[in-house]
Amino acid sequence: MTEKLELLEEHRVFDGTQRKYRHHSETLHCTMTFSLFLPNVEKFPNPSLVWWLSGLTCTDDNFTHKAGAQKKAAELGLALVMPDTSPRGETVADDADWDLGQGAGFYVNATQQPWNANYQMYDYIVTELTTIVRETLGLTGSESIMGHSMGGHGALVIGLRNPDRFRAISAFSPIVNPSDVPWGMKAFDAYLGADKQAWAPWDASKLLASHDGKSVPILLDQGTADNFLHVQLQPENLIAPEGYPLKIRMQDGYDHSYYFIASFIDEHLEFHQKHL
Q: Is 210 a catalytic residue?
């Protein structure tokens, strides 16, 4: 696995380095890419790592190119890793709709055919890509996780399911209760089957409502002008137990785009740095 890691791009940026890699995934049974930002390694020899999970239709390039995160990450000494959003390739199951299949992995482990052959995105991120990042790339610092929309769902679920690993979670416009909104119901029915009990471990609203262990601080930003706010996102349904460190900020006039992310990414990175 690790010996096949191929460096595709490398760019100097804000005294750090932006890279793009390709490798064969044994978990997903296909070729995958991911991007990585490293701050100046002489100043920060063992940087903390923030994972970014992107949304529907995105690749690892969207955040790298549009969010403007590198400058603040360089200042704070944070490494950023950006996985792709799904398995890819001609032999990988797909769907004609943009919100299912390639580009729409939802960060779950699919159990239903034909998706279960490749769509094991949770295991890919939590185990396989983690091994590459730690053992091949040598990034062993403390970790946190964040994401946007479908990736916000992924960040919340992965962070809440791994509280001993991730020290903070943040999200822009996340799908907080996929079991009850059209995007999530469509994907979960396809990937996980019709039994809604099997959906609960992948639903942040249900994970947080039943939380009784270690708390992971959460910051959530949602734009009030987001076209998907009321039907697909519904942040009001992310309800934490009393005393849980959850902060939801409604940002007036912002939409679902990367303009919104770019406007607040510095604050999110500072939030992560505080807990890392």
A: no
